[in-house]
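Changelog note: in this version the structure field was regenerated for every chain. One regenerated record is shown below for reference.
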Amino acid sequence: MQKLFLNKEVLKTVESKSEKDLQKFICENWTTLFPDYTLIKDEFPLKGDVHGVGKKGRTDIFAYHKGKHRFTVFELKRDYNENVASQAANYAGFVREHFHKVYVEAKETHGAAIPEMAKIDNKEVDVVLVAKTFSGGQINQAKSSKEPVTLIEYCWFADDILFFDYVTNAPDDIIVNAPDEDEDDITEDANTWTFSDLDLPVGVELVLTEDKTKKCKVANDTQVEYEGELFSLAALAEKLLQRKVGRALIRFTYNGTSINNRRKPNREGNKRGTVDWFKTQGWHAIVKGIEQPAEIRKQLQDIVPTNTEPTKEHIPQLREILKQRVFHVTRRAALLELLDELEKQD
C-alpha cells in the first residue's frame, strides 16, 4: 500500500477516480507530466481494420516523442489486464502500417505540432501503458519486448495529487538523441579501459540498452562472447545496431545499470562523459558538440557567439532554449549547471 506524507500528514488514497478522470488530468497537465512528448490528441481515431476484424479503434492518447522522433500510443486503465497490452500493440501496429494516413490525420485534421513526415521514424511506434498496478509477469514481458513498452503505475491521493511510478523506461534512464552526437570529443579508444577497470569479471552478462533481448558475456579483459564468437564491445554494438558506434559503454547495462557508470574518474576526478566532465570542457565545447538538432546549437551560438562568454543577461534566453529537452541529456544538464553557477556569481 502506498502512502504519501505531506506537511506531516498522510494523504488518503482516492478510489473513485475513473479512467476518464485520469485521461483528463493527464491531458490538462501534459507538459508537466510528459515534457518529452507532444500531445496530438486524446481519443485519437484510427480509421481502418485495427483489430484484424474490420473494426476501427481509438487510442486513449496519441502523442509524438520529440527526442526519439516517433509516434507513441498511450493506453490508460484502472485495472490492467492482458487485453490492454494486446490492444495497444494492435494500435501501434496499425500506426506503423498506415503511417502516411495517420500522419495526415494528426497534422492536417488535428493540427499537431509535429515535424515534416520525412523526419519521423516510420519503423517504430512506442507504447505507454498506465495502470494502478502490473504483475511481475507483465513487467518481465514488457522489459523483454522487442517493441519499446513503458509501464507506469499510478495512485490518486486527496487534494488531486497523482503519483506516477515508472516501472520500465523511466525518462532519466533513457538516452535521447545522444550517444553518437558526442563522438567527436569523447570517442572511446579500445585501449582506454578494460573490463577489470569496470569491475566486471569474466562470465557476467551484459544487455544491449536498445534491445534487451540481445545479451553477451564478458569473455576476457577486452572482449565479449556473443553467439559463440568473440567481439570487442564496440564491434558487437555496431553489429547489433547496424551502424557506427563511438561510445560502446553506454550501449550496454549490467544488472540494469549502464556500465559507463562504472568507469573510474579521470585525472581531474571526473568520469569522462558525465555532467562534471562536460563542465570542465567549457560552454562553447559543449555547445559545439550538439549535432542534433542543429537548430538548438545555432540558437545557443546566436546568443553567445564563440568569441564571447555567457553573461547573466543571457541566462533567461538560454534557459528557455534548454527547456526543450530534445538533445543529449548530459550536455543539457551541464549547460544548465553552468548557468546556475553564473547566476550565483557576484
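Spot check on this record: Residues 275-344 form one domain. The mean pLDDT is 79.
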